[in-house]
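Progress note, sequence design subtask.
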């Protein structure tokens, strides 16, 4: 078989595989994007319906709250009128104008007053009898902490229409008053909210207890959310989406929850979208993609045929252009047999490989140099972090000596200066980055004794470190900033006497050194800020909490991301800071305990 024929067949097969794969991936991805876009639009539509429902129900709750605050109306409803004419006068003077205004301006079907006062014998006044008291809605209103309850829809006798109602206690004047007002609203008000969005969709509004307020389905409306198989999933989450199959039809179910006000809080807005409604656009996209695939195949086949015919005539020209690379006079890496164009391409390939190897070697050498420079920079930064702590500590101690001299004269200064001198000697002691834990604990004891001179009777401390842990090594000056932080932020501003505990534990092959106090503690918001600071990359740019941040960065740079500081605190309950490091016993040449 000629090379020309091989090239045509090979290119046609590759073209079909690549175009077919690409078309499939693009159609699948585009279909998913179209589907996701439709679902996103449906979600936005559902959110708008939820907001509109919230506003609409809120307007009726405002009416109920206005009636609740109308003390003159409640006085009238609780007053007994021996003469019914007086009741008529009060009704037309106080209630009838309010009833008319609400019906006209707020699209309310009617107001109904449930009362135990037999003085009012009007059509929209109902006497509270045993049937009313035992009804589910009345019990819900009485037991509600807000004194209000939204009912499901029901048929009204006069006028004959389907309504739903908000029932609210009017007990501002008398907390024990059984009077309830029912604000009845035509269901058409809710239908108007979903008129545009409900085309091809099904909307369901449910009460917090699952009772259905309205179901836009004409075929099989439900009365309670439990009638749907996915009710439990909807009731246990505030919002989301899921797929639901009913017979042969599959639905995308989207749901959201009203949370703005107390009475409507927990109400669900649910929409069911048939997947068949979403398929026309996706099928149209698939048809377009298939047509484009056929056209691309035809054009590609023609181009491949023309390219293959001219390819053999261009081999010589291509090899001549590739020989220009030989000006660098590179040696070959592979054995080339023959003198045809393929052999020439092989020779040029060897030259390109050699050049590529040189470039790779140069790249690796550059990377090695960069990493060495980064390591040197990191080492300098580690020492800089350690150096930041020392001046801060020395400054505090000198202030302590100055304050003590001003307040107490020369008493006890000999001991104080002795401790200070010992602390200087230990702090400035030469050595590596790690020291035995026993030396760090000795330094902490001296530091706490010095601070006890500054804060007389302000705190006591207790150090409990296992003997076997004292032979471990830790980074130098990493525990002192934790103790200093406990005194400065937890104990200094506290009026009562406090205590500091320093302890150690072995947990899962790690050392946990714990500094705990019963001071002021840290608020949740402040604790979140400190956690964020500990994760910041910059180590030398922040003045606040520099000790904690430096220690945390030193531990991570020395041992890895699994180590560092763990801060726990509760406002008013104290703070606990845990330093986690690996077990590192003393080596030969280190200072022993």
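Output:
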């Amino acid at each position: 078989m000629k090379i020309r024929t091989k090239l045509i067949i090979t290119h046609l097969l590759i073209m079909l595989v690549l175009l077919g794969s690409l078309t499939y991936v693009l159609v699948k991805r585009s279909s998913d994007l179209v589907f996701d876009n439709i679902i996103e639009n449906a979600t936005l539509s559902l959110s708008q319906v939820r907001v509109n429902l919230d506003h609409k129900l809120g307007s009726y709750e405002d009416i109920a709250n206005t009636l609740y605050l109308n003390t003159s109306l409640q006085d009238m409803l609780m007053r007994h009128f021996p003469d019914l004419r007086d009741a008529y006068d009060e009704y037309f003077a106080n209630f009838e104008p309010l009833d008319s205004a609400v019906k006209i301006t707020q699209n309310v079907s009617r107001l109904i007053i449930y009362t135990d006062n037999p003085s009012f014998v009007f059509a929209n006044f109902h006497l509270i009898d045993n049937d009313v008291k035992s009804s589910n809605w009345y019990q819900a209103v009485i037991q509600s902490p807000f004194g209000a309850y939204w009912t499901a829809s029901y048929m009204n006798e006069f006028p004959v229409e389907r309504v739903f109602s908000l029932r609210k206690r009017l007990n501002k004047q008398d907390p024990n008053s059984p009077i309830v007002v029912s604000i009845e609203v035509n269901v058409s008000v809710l239908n108007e909210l979903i008129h545009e969005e409900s085309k091809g969709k099904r909307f369901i509004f449910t009460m917090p207890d699952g009772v259905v307020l309205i179901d836009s389905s004409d075929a099989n409306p439900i009365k309670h959310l439990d009638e749907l198989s996915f009710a439990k999933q909807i009731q246990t989450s505030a919002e989301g989406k899921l797929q639901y199959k009913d017979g042969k039809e599959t639905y995308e179910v989207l749901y959201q929850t009203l949370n703005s006000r107390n009475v409507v809080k927990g109400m669900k807005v649910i929409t069911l979208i048939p997947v068949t409604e979403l398929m026309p656009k996706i099928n149209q996209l698939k048809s377009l993609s298939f047509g484009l695939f056929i056209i691309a195949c035809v054009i590609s086949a023609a181009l491949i045929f023309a390219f293959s015919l001219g390819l053999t005539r261009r081999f010589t020209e291509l090899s001549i252009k590739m020989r220009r690379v030989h000006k660098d006079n590179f040696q070959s890496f592979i054995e080339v047999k023959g003198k045809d164009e393929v052999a020439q391409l092989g020779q040029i390939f060897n030259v390109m490989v050699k050049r590529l190897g040189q470039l790779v070697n140069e790249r690796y050498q550059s990377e090695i140099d960069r990493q060495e420079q980064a390591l040197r920079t990191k080492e300098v930064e580690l020492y800089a972090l350690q150096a930041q702590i020392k001046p801060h500590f020395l400054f505090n101690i000198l202030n302590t000596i100055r304050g003590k001299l001003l307040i107490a004269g020369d008493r006890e200064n000999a001991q104080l200066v002795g401790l200070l001198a010992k602390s200087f000697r230990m702090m400035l002691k030469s050595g590596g980055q790690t020291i035995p834990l026993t030396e760090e604990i000795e330094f902490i004891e001296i530091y706490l004794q010095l601070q006890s001179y500054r804060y007389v009777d302000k705190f006591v401390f207790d150090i409990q470190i296992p003997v076997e842990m004292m032979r471990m090594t830790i980074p130098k000056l990493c525990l002192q900033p934790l103790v200093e932080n406990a005194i400065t932020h937890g104990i200094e501003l506290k009026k009562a006497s406090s205590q500091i505990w320093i302890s150690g534990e072995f947990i899962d092959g790690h050392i946990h050194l714990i500094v705990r106090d019963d001071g002021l503690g840290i608020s949740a918001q402040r604790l979140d800020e400190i956690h964020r600071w500990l994760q910041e990359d910059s180590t030398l740019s922040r003045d606040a909490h520099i000790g904690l941040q430096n220690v945390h960065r030193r531990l991570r740079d020395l041992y890895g991301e699994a180590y560092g500081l763990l801060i726990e605190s509760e406002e008013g309950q104290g703070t606990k800071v845990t330093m986690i490091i690996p077990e590192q016993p003393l080596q030969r040449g280190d200072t022993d305990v």
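The CA atoms of residues 242 and 330 lie 65 Å apart. Work on this subtask will continue into the next period as scheduled.
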